[in-house]
TrEMBL record:
Domain of life of the organism encoding this protein: Bacteria
Pfam family, one: ABC_tran
Name of the protein in its database record: ABC transporter ATP-binding protein
InterPro entries registered for this protein in UniProt: AAA+_ATPase (IPR003593), ABC_transporter-like_ATP-bd (IPR003439), ABC_transporter-like_CS (IPR017871), ABC_transporter_ATP-bind (IPR050166), P-loop_NTPase (IPR027417)
Residue span(s) of domain ABC transporter: 3-232
Molecular functions (GO terms): ATP binding; ATP hydrolysis activity
Keyword field contains Cell membrane: no
SMART domains on file: AAA
PROSITE patterns named in the record: ABC_TRANSPORTER_1, ABC_TRANSPORTER_2
Keywords of the record: ATP-binding, Nucleotide-binding, Transport
Gene3D superfamilies: P-loop containing nucleotide triphosphate hydrolases
Length: 252
């Protein structure tokens, strides 16, 4: 299985009737089981790329294929930047929502409880979203994407709003879940250390709409100690340099 974007372009017309090109001729390929991070300055179009892959937005040109089939709404699991947990539903009912709409998806309450336990939320199965902290809601929101049963998961800055310690915990369990389930993950982040620690490959979306690929040559499984390794530090510096070159380009 692979996910392929072929010459994808997306533009919208603003209130002054001008065309804004958000994505232009984007080519990208992600293999089964890969963990790929998408980075880039704010406004370069990262979230738009994920929305195009989900089918929530439709490209103006090009093709998006999974296993050689054009993607349509519901083909991938998606965790948006802002969690969309339904406030009137309990946590367990929120994470099981996909199984209510997909007849072929067999997720029992027992399965759901097992996963809630794994992410430390079993005590909250009957709580409402407003009773949970930000980190807990993110975990619930992640389980909801996981429980779509899809092989491809798109995660848009899932840990962006968390404190450093909670973020570290969430990264560790995300890696363990990814390894156990052989999911394909595209992960947006502004945290370059996080991108380096989690990914097989990093894709940097430039302001001029081109995509640059950076391979992460660190062994798996990743261990927290690696964050301070020479390789990781130099990769982070390389990424910082690339991004700050972008910022300078904007000034001239
Ligand atoms: N349909 C649309 N209508 C109006 N503006 C749009 C539309 N689609 C995209 N944009 C604009 O396109 C740009 C790219 O947005 P996008 O959210 O994809 O960027 P991003 O790289 O994910 O940013 P961030 O890192 O800040 O989340 C933004 O300026 C956004 O406002």
């Amino acid at each position: 299985m692979s996910l392929i974007l072929k010459n994808v372009s997306y533009s919208f017309t603003n209130e002054n009737d001008q065309k804004n090109h958000v994505i232009s001729n984007l080519n990208m390929e992600v293999q089964t089981g890969e963990f790929v991070s998408l980075i880039g300055k704010s406004g370069t179009g990262k979230s738009t790329v994920l929305k195009l892959i989900t089918g929530l937005l439709k490209e103006n040109h090009g093709q998006i294929l999974i296993n050689n089939q054009e993607v349509s709404l519901g083909d991938v699991g998606y965790m948006p930047q802002k969690d969309l947990l339904l406030p009137w539903r309990t946590i367990i009912d929120n994470i099981m929502i996909a199984s209510e709409f997909q007849k072929d998806l067999h997720i029992s309450k027992e399965d759901a409880r097992k996963w809630l336990d794994r992410v430390g939320l079993l005590k909250y199965e009957n709580a409402l979203p407003k009773q949970l902290s930000g980190g807990m809601r993110q975990r619930a929101s992640f389980l909801r994407a996981l429980f779509t049963g899809k092989d491809v998961l798109l995660l848009d800055e899932p840990f962006g709003a968390l404190d450093a310690l909670t973020k570290r915990e969430m990264q560790t369990w995300l890696l363990s879940i990814w390894q156990d389930l052989n999911k394909t993950i595209i992960f947006i982040t502004h945290d370059l250390e996080e991108a380096a620690y989690l990914s097989d490959r990093i894709l940097l979306l430039h302001q001029n709409k081109t995509l640059e690929e950076i391979k992460v040559e660190l062994p798996r499984p990743r261990k927290l100690g690696m964050i301070h390794s020479k390789e990781m530090v130099s990769l982070r510096q390389e990424l910082e340099k690339k991004i700050s070159n972008e910022a300078n380009k904007k000034l001239v």
